[in-house]
Prior knowledge:
Helix content: 10-25%
Amino acid sequence: MINKNFGFGTQIRKSPYFDSTVKWGATGFSVYNHMYIPRDFGNPEQNFWNLIEKSILCDVAVERQVEITGPDAYKFIQLLTPRDLSKLSIGQCKYVLIVNDKGGIINDPVLLRLGENHFWLSLADSDVLLWAQGVAVNSGLNVKINEPDVSPLQLQGPTSAEIMIKLFGEEIKDLKYYWFKECKLDGIPLVVSRTGWSSEFGYEIFLRDGTKGNDLYEKIMEAGKEHGLMPGHTSSIRRIEGGMLSYHADADIETNPFELGLGRLVNLDSDINFIGKEALKKIKQEGIKRKQVGLELDCEPLKGPNTTFWPIYKDGKKIGKVTSAVYSPRLKKNIALAMVEINHSDIGNTLKIISNREIKSKIIEKPFYDPKKKIASS
Protein backbone atom coordinates (compact mmCIF):
# COMPACT_ATOMS: atom_id res chain seq x y z
CA MET A 1 0.00 0.00 0.00
CA ILE A 2 1.11 3.55 -0.63
CA ASN A 3 -0.20 6.76 0.84
CA LYS A 4 -1.49 9.96 -0.73
CA ASN A 5 2.06 11.06 -1.55
CA PHE A 6 2.38 8.28 -4.07
CA GLY A 7 4.78 8.36 -6.98
CA PHE A 8 3.73 6.40 -10.05
CA GLY A 9 6.13 5.03 -12.62
CA THR A 10 5.53 3.87 -16.17
CA GLN A 11 6.37 0.20 -15.62
CA ILE A 12 3.08 -0.29 -13.76
CA ARG A 13 -0.05 0.79 -15.60
CA LYS A 14 -2.85 3.03 -14.39
CA SER A 15 -6.44 2.08 -15.04
CA PRO A 16 -8.70 4.15 -17.33
CA TYR A 17 -10.60 5.16 -14.18
CA PHE A 18 -7.55 6.34 -12.25
CA ASP A 19 -8.29 10.08 -12.23
CA SER A 20 -11.89 9.53 -11.16
CA THR A 21 -10.94 7.19 -8.33
CA VAL A 22 -8.51 9.77 -6.95
CA LYS A 23 -11.15 12.49 -7.32
CA TRP A 24 -13.65 10.31 -5.41
CA GLY A 25 -11.28 9.68 -2.52
CA ALA A 26 -8.87 6.85 -3.25
CA THR A 27 -5.93 7.32 -0.88
CA GLY A 28 -4.09 4.02 -1.24
CA PHE A 29 -3.21 1.66 -4.06
CA SER A 30 -1.70 -1.78 -4.45
CA VAL A 31 -0.48 -3.64 -7.53
CA TYR A 32 -2.40 -6.45 -9.26
CA ASN A 33 -1.68 -7.83 -12.73
CA HIS A 34 1.02 -5.17 -13.17
CA MET A 35 -1.52 -2.37 -12.63
CA TYR A 36 -2.42 -0.02 -9.80
CA ILE A 37 -5.70 -0.84 -8.06
CA PRO A 38 -7.34 1.51 -5.53
CA ARG A 39 -7.50 -0.29 -2.18
CA ASP A 40 -8.38 2.47 0.25
CA PHE A 41 -11.37 4.82 0.27
CA GLY A 42 -11.27 5.31 4.01
CA ASN A 43 -12.65 2.90 6.61
CA PRO A 44 -12.79 -0.72 5.29
CA GLU A 45 -15.66 -1.49 7.67
CA GLN A 46 -17.69 1.41 6.27
CA ASN A 47 -16.91 0.17 2.76
CA PHE A 48 -18.35 -3.21 3.83
CA TRP A 49 -21.58 -1.62 5.12
CA ASN A 50 -21.85 0.51 1.97
CA LEU A 51 -21.64 -2.70 -0.08
CA ILE A 52 -24.20 -4.77 1.79
CA GLU A 53 -26.70 -1.97 2.54
CA LYS A 54 -26.60 0.14 -0.66
CA SER A 55 -23.95 -0.31 -3.37
CA ILE A 56 -20.37 0.51 -4.27
CA LEU A 57 -18.51 1.13 -7.53
CA CYS A 58 -15.10 -0.56 -7.72
CA ASP A 59 -12.35 0.00 -10.24
CA VAL A 60 -11.27 -3.54 -11.12
CA ALA A 61 -9.60 -2.76 -14.44
CA VAL A 62 -6.76 -4.92 -13.07
CA GLU A 63 -8.93 -7.93 -13.92
CA ARG A 64 -7.27 -8.04 -17.33
CA GLN A 65 -8.81 -10.01 -20.18
CA VAL A 66 -7.05 -12.63 -22.23
CA GLU A 67 -8.86 -12.74 -25.57
CA ILE A 68 -8.76 -15.98 -27.55
CA THR A 69 -10.05 -16.01 -31.12
CA GLY A 70 -9.48 -18.01 -34.30
CA PRO A 71 -10.85 -21.20 -35.86
CA ASP A 72 -9.61 -23.39 -32.99
CA ALA A 73 -10.42 -21.01 -30.11
CA TYR A 74 -12.97 -23.36 -28.51
CA LYS A 75 -10.60 -26.34 -28.65
CA PHE A 76 -7.84 -24.19 -27.18
CA ILE A 77 -9.89 -22.76 -24.29
CA GLN A 78 -10.96 -26.31 -23.36
CA LEU A 79 -7.29 -27.30 -23.36
CA LEU A 80 -6.63 -24.63 -20.71
CA THR A 81 -9.30 -25.64 -18.19
CA PRO A 82 -10.50 -28.88 -16.55
CA ARG A 83 -14.10 -27.62 -16.52
CA ASP A 84 -16.29 -29.12 -19.24
CA LEU A 85 -17.29 -26.26 -21.57
CA SER A 86 -19.47 -28.27 -23.95
CA LYS A 87 -22.64 -26.57 -22.69
CA LEU A 88 -21.22 -23.04 -22.55
CA SER A 89 -23.49 -20.81 -24.66
CA ILE A 90 -22.64 -17.57 -26.41
CA GLY A 91 -23.49 -14.82 -23.92
CA GLN A 92 -22.76 -17.02 -20.90
CA CYS A 93 -20.01 -16.84 -18.25
CA LYS A 94 -18.45 -19.65 -16.23
CA TYR A 95 -16.09 -19.66 -13.26
CA VAL A 96 -13.17 -21.84 -14.32
CA LEU A 97 -9.75 -22.97 -13.16
CA ILE A 98 -6.58 -22.94 -15.22
CA VAL A 99 -4.09 -25.56 -14.08
CA ASN A 100 -0.59 -26.64 -15.06
CA ASP A 101 0.62 -30.12 -15.95
CA LYS A 102 0.91 -31.02 -12.24
CA GLY A 103 -2.66 -29.94 -11.48
CA GLY A 104 -1.55 -26.74 -9.72
CA ILE A 105 -3.81 -23.73 -10.08
CA ILE A 106 -2.45 -20.93 -12.28
CA ASN A 107 -5.57 -18.75 -12.16
CA ASP A 108 -9.29 -18.87 -11.36
CA PRO A 109 -10.85 -16.54 -13.93
CA VAL A 110 -14.38 -15.97 -15.15
CA LEU A 111 -14.73 -17.13 -18.76
CA LEU A 112 -17.00 -15.20 -21.14
CA ARG A 113 -18.05 -16.60 -24.51
CA LEU A 114 -18.64 -13.73 -26.93
CA GLY A 115 -18.89 -15.87 -30.07
CA GLU A 116 -18.52 -19.40 -31.39
CA ASN A 117 -14.73 -18.98 -31.33
CA HIS A 118 -14.37 -15.77 -29.30
CA PHE A 119 -13.57 -15.91 -25.57
CA TRP A 120 -12.38 -13.67 -22.74
CA LEU A 121 -10.70 -14.91 -19.60
CA SER A 122 -11.30 -12.29 -16.89
CA LEU A 123 -8.27 -12.84 -14.71
CA ALA A 124 -7.19 -13.04 -11.13
CA ASP A 125 -3.62 -11.94 -10.41
CA SER A 126 -1.25 -14.01 -12.58
CA ASP A 127 0.28 -13.91 -16.06
CA VAL A 128 -2.17 -16.06 -18.01
CA LEU A 129 -1.53 -14.11 -21.21
CA LEU A 130 2.04 -15.45 -21.23
CA TRP A 131 0.92 -18.95 -20.21
CA ALA A 132 -1.71 -19.10 -22.97
CA GLN A 133 0.67 -17.80 -25.63
CA GLY A 134 3.27 -20.35 -24.52
CA VAL A 135 0.77 -23.21 -24.64
CA ALA A 136 -0.33 -22.10 -28.12
CA VAL A 137 3.18 -22.33 -29.59
CA ASN A 138 3.25 -26.12 -29.85
CA SER A 139 -0.48 -26.82 -29.64
CA GLY A 140 -0.99 -27.15 -33.39
CA LEU A 141 -4.14 -25.05 -33.00
CA ASN A 142 -5.00 -21.96 -35.06
CA VAL A 143 -5.65 -19.27 -32.46
CA LYS A 144 -4.88 -15.63 -31.80
CA ILE A 145 -4.21 -14.65 -28.17
CA ASN A 146 -3.95 -11.06 -26.97
CA GLU A 147 -4.97 -8.61 -24.27
CA PRO A 148 -7.78 -6.41 -25.62
CA ASP A 149 -8.62 -2.85 -24.58
CA VAL A 150 -11.13 -3.99 -21.96
CA SER A 151 -11.36 -2.68 -18.39
CA PRO A 152 -14.04 -3.81 -15.92
CA LEU A 153 -15.84 -1.90 -13.20
CA GLN A 154 -17.86 -3.64 -10.51
CA LEU A 155 -21.20 -2.21 -9.42
CA GLN A 156 -22.15 -4.34 -6.44
CA GLY A 157 -24.79 -4.22 -3.73
CA PRO A 158 -28.58 -4.38 -3.25
CA THR A 159 -29.32 -1.06 -4.99
CA SER A 160 -27.16 -1.88 -8.04
CA ALA A 161 -30.19 -3.14 -9.99
CA GLU A 162 -31.97 0.22 -9.62
CA ILE A 163 -28.86 2.04 -10.79
CA MET A 164 -28.49 -0.25 -13.80
CA ILE A 165 -32.15 0.30 -14.75
CA LYS A 166 -31.55 4.05 -14.68
CA LEU A 167 -28.51 3.64 -16.92
CA PHE A 168 -29.70 0.93 -19.33
CA GLY A 169 -33.49 0.68 -19.01
CA GLU A 170 -35.87 -1.95 -17.65
CA GLU A 171 -34.62 -4.69 -20.00
CA ILE A 172 -31.42 -5.00 -17.95
CA LYS A 173 -33.54 -6.83 -15.35
CA ASP A 174 -33.74 -9.79 -17.76
CA LEU A 175 -29.98 -10.42 -17.51
CA LYS A 176 -29.50 -13.72 -15.67
CA TYR A 177 -26.79 -14.63 -13.16
CA TYR A 178 -23.55 -15.46 -14.99
CA TRP A 179 -24.80 -14.15 -18.34
CA PHE A 180 -23.80 -10.99 -20.18
CA LYS A 181 -24.85 -8.70 -23.01
CA GLU A 182 -23.02 -6.32 -25.32
CA CYS A 183 -24.41 -2.79 -25.28
CA LYS A 184 -23.57 0.92 -25.36
CA LEU A 185 -24.09 3.74 -22.87
CA ASP A 186 -24.19 7.14 -24.59
CA GLY A 187 -22.04 5.68 -27.33
CA ILE A 188 -19.53 4.03 -24.96
CA PRO A 189 -19.04 0.36 -25.99
CA LEU A 190 -19.56 -2.09 -23.12
CA VAL A 191 -20.14 -5.66 -22.07
CA VAL A 192 -22.38 -5.94 -18.99
CA SER A 193 -22.47 -9.15 -16.95
CA ARG A 194 -24.34 -10.37 -13.87
CA THR A 195 -21.13 -11.29 -12.07
CA GLY A 196 -18.81 -9.84 -9.45
CA TRP A 197 -16.21 -10.55 -6.80
CA SER A 198 -18.26 -9.55 -3.76
CA SER A 199 -20.74 -12.33 -2.77
CA GLU A 200 -23.45 -9.66 -3.19
CA PHE A 201 -25.94 -9.00 -5.98
CA GLY A 202 -24.22 -6.99 -8.67
CA TYR A 203 -22.88 -6.38 -12.13
CA GLU A 204 -19.58 -6.05 -13.93
CA ILE A 205 -19.30 -3.41 -16.62
CA PHE A 206 -16.51 -4.10 -19.13
CA LEU A 207 -15.39 -0.92 -20.87
CA ARG A 208 -14.17 -1.54 -24.45
CA ASP A 209 -12.59 1.87 -25.03
CA GLY A 210 -9.99 2.95 -22.48
CA THR A 211 -10.24 6.62 -23.50
CA LYS A 212 -13.76 6.72 -21.99
CA GLY A 213 -12.86 5.47 -18.51
CA ASN A 214 -13.38 8.57 -16.39
CA ASP A 215 -16.48 9.49 -18.42
CA LEU A 216 -18.06 6.10 -17.68
CA TYR A 217 -17.13 6.20 -13.99
CA GLU A 218 -18.71 9.65 -13.57
CA LYS A 219 -21.90 8.62 -15.40
CA ILE A 220 -22.39 5.66 -13.07
CA MET A 221 -21.68 7.69 -9.92
CA GLU A 222 -24.18 10.33 -11.04
CA ALA A 223 -26.86 7.72 -11.78
CA GLY A 224 -26.27 6.12 -8.39
CA LYS A 225 -26.47 9.28 -6.32
CA GLU A 226 -30.13 8.85 -5.35
CA HIS A 227 -29.58 5.15 -4.59
CA GLY A 228 -26.76 5.60 -2.07
CA LEU A 229 -23.93 4.58 -4.40
CA MET A 230 -20.47 5.13 -2.93
CA PRO A 231 -16.99 4.78 -4.43
CA GLY A 232 -15.31 1.75 -2.97
CA HIS A 233 -12.94 -1.16 -3.26
CA THR A 234 -13.40 -4.91 -3.24
CA SER A 235 -14.27 -5.85 0.34
CA SER A 236 -11.98 -8.36 2.06
CA ILE A 237 -14.58 -8.70 4.80
CA ARG A 238 -17.40 -9.68 2.45
CA ARG A 239 -15.35 -11.94 0.19
CA ILE A 240 -14.01 -13.90 3.20
CA GLU A 241 -17.55 -14.14 4.63
CA GLY A 242 -18.55 -15.63 1.28
CA GLY A 243 -15.55 -17.98 1.14
CA MET A 244 -14.30 -16.44 -2.11
CA LEU A 245 -10.70 -17.18 -3.05
CA SER A 246 -7.99 -14.59 -3.48
CA TYR A 247 -5.26 -15.92 -5.74
CA HIS A 248 -1.75 -15.83 -4.19
CA ALA A 249 -3.43 -15.89 -0.76
CA ASP A 250 -5.87 -18.83 -0.65
CA ALA A 251 -4.57 -20.59 -3.76
CA ASP A 252 -1.40 -20.70 -5.80
CA ILE A 253 0.46 -22.88 -8.28
CA GLU A 254 1.12 -25.45 -5.53
CA THR A 255 -2.60 -25.77 -4.71
CA ASN A 256 -4.86 -28.21 -6.52
CA PRO A 257 -8.65 -27.91 -7.01
CA PHE A 258 -9.54 -30.81 -4.69
CA GLU A 259 -7.77 -29.19 -1.73
CA LEU A 260 -10.14 -26.22 -2.15
CA GLY A 261 -13.28 -28.29 -2.51
CA LEU A 262 -13.54 -27.34 -6.20
CA GLY A 263 -13.78 -30.81 -7.65
CA ARG A 264 -17.01 -29.74 -9.39
CA LEU A 265 -14.83 -27.65 -11.74
CA VAL A 266 -12.78 -30.70 -12.79
CA ASN A 267 -14.27 -33.13 -15.31
CA LEU A 268 -12.27 -36.35 -15.35
CA ASP A 269 -15.02 -38.64 -16.60
CA SER A 270 -15.45 -37.39 -20.17
CA ASP A 271 -13.14 -37.56 -23.17
CA ILE A 272 -12.29 -33.84 -23.11
CA ASN A 273 -8.58 -33.16 -23.17
CA PHE A 274 -6.96 -30.53 -20.95
CA ILE A 275 -3.59 -29.74 -19.43
CA GLY A 276 -3.13 -31.47 -16.08
CA LYS A 277 -5.75 -34.18 -16.61
CA GLU A 278 -3.50 -37.13 -15.75
CA ALA A 279 -2.08 -35.33 -12.71
CA LEU A 280 -5.56 -34.52 -11.41
CA LYS A 281 -6.67 -38.11 -11.94
CA LYS A 282 -3.75 -39.28 -9.81
CA ILE A 283 -4.43 -36.69 -7.08
CA LYS A 284 -8.08 -37.72 -6.90
CA GLN A 285 -7.20 -41.42 -6.81
CA GLU A 286 -4.55 -41.06 -4.09
CA GLY A 287 -6.52 -38.51 -2.05
CA ILE A 288 -5.51 -35.06 -0.87
CA LYS A 289 -3.09 -34.49 2.00
CA ARG A 290 -4.44 -31.09 3.04
CA LYS A 291 -7.70 -29.20 2.82
CA GLN A 292 -9.04 -25.65 3.01
CA VAL A 293 -11.18 -25.03 6.10
CA GLY A 294 -13.01 -22.17 7.75
CA LEU A 295 -11.90 -20.96 11.17
CA GLU A 296 -13.40 -18.90 13.97
CA LEU A 297 -10.66 -17.07 15.87
CA ASP A 298 -11.08 -16.51 19.60
CA CYS A 299 -9.46 -13.10 20.14
CA GLU A 300 -10.27 -9.41 20.14
CA PRO A 301 -11.44 -8.02 16.78
CA LEU A 302 -8.65 -8.02 14.21
CA LYS A 303 -7.64 -4.52 13.12
CA GLY A 304 -7.46 -5.55 9.47
CA PRO A 305 -6.75 -8.53 7.21
CA ASN A 306 -3.61 -10.56 7.82
CA THR A 307 -0.61 -9.46 5.76
CA THR A 308 1.40 -12.67 6.28
CA PHE A 309 0.50 -16.35 6.46
CA TRP A 310 -0.02 -17.32 10.11
CA PRO A 311 1.22 -20.81 11.06
CA ILE A 312 -1.27 -23.23 12.64
CA TYR A 313 -0.31 -25.80 15.26
CA LYS A 314 -1.90 -28.88 16.80
CA ASP A 315 -0.22 -30.61 19.76
CA GLY A 316 2.97 -28.67 19.13
CA LYS A 317 3.21 -29.64 15.45
CA LYS A 318 2.75 -27.20 12.58
CA ILE A 319 -0.14 -28.51 10.49
CA GLY A 320 -1.08 -25.60 8.24
CA LYS A 321 -1.46 -21.87 7.74
CA VAL A 322 -4.08 -19.13 7.86
CA THR A 323 -4.39 -17.66 4.36
CA SER A 324 -7.07 -14.96 4.85
CA ALA A 325 -8.35 -13.58 8.16
CA VAL A 326 -10.59 -10.64 9.03
CA TYR A 327 -13.10 -9.39 11.60
CA SER A 328 -16.70 -9.50 10.38
CA PRO A 329 -18.73 -6.69 11.96
CA ARG A 330 -21.94 -8.39 10.84
CA LEU A 331 -21.09 -11.79 12.36
CA LYS A 332 -19.30 -10.07 15.26
CA LYS A 333 -16.41 -12.50 15.16
CA ASN A 334 -13.04 -13.08 13.54
CA ILE A 335 -13.17 -15.50 10.62
CA ALA A 336 -10.47 -17.01 8.45
CA LEU A 337 -9.74 -19.31 5.56
CA ALA A 338 -6.91 -21.76 6.21
CA MET A 339 -5.12 -24.73 4.68
CA VAL A 340 -4.51 -27.61 7.10
CA GLU A 341 -3.43 -31.24 7.01
CA ILE A 342 -6.36 -33.46 6.09
CA ASN A 343 -6.32 -35.45 9.33
CA HIS A 344 -6.87 -32.22 11.31
CA SER A 345 -9.63 -30.77 9.09
CA ASP A 346 -12.80 -31.97 10.85
CA ILE A 347 -15.47 -29.46 11.87
CA GLY A 348 -15.11 -28.61 15.56
CA ASN A 349 -11.40 -29.33 15.74
CA THR A 350 -9.51 -26.77 17.85
CA LEU A 351 -6.20 -25.37 16.62
CA LYS A 352 -3.58 -22.87 17.77
CA ILE A 353 -2.54 -19.96 15.55
CA ILE A 354 0.63 -17.94 15.98
CA SER A 355 0.64 -14.37 14.60
CA ASN A 356 2.17 -11.73 16.83
CA ARG A 357 0.47 -13.64 19.61
CA GLU A 358 -1.14 -17.01 20.27
CA ILE A 359 -4.76 -17.34 19.11
CA LYS A 360 -7.17 -20.19 19.80
CA SER A 361 -9.35 -21.20 16.87
CA LYS A 362 -12.02 -23.71 15.90
CA ILE A 363 -12.90 -25.17 12.51
CA ILE A 364 -16.43 -24.18 11.45
CA GLU A 365 -18.52 -24.50 8.29
CA LYS A 366 -17.72 -22.22 5.37
CA PRO A 367 -18.82 -20.07 3.64
CA PHE A 368 -19.49 -18.15 6.82
CA TYR A 369 -22.49 -16.18 5.47
CA ASP A 370 -25.09 -17.03 2.80
CA PRO A 371 -23.54 -20.43 2.00
CA LYS A 372 -25.81 -21.11 -0.98
CA LYS A 373 -24.99 -17.68 -2.55
CA LYS A 374 -28.68 -16.78 -2.66
CA ILE A 375 -27.85 -13.07 -2.41
CA ALA A 376 -25.49 -12.97 -5.39
CA SER A 377 -27.62 -15.21 -7.60
CA SER A 378 -31.04 -13.75 -6.73
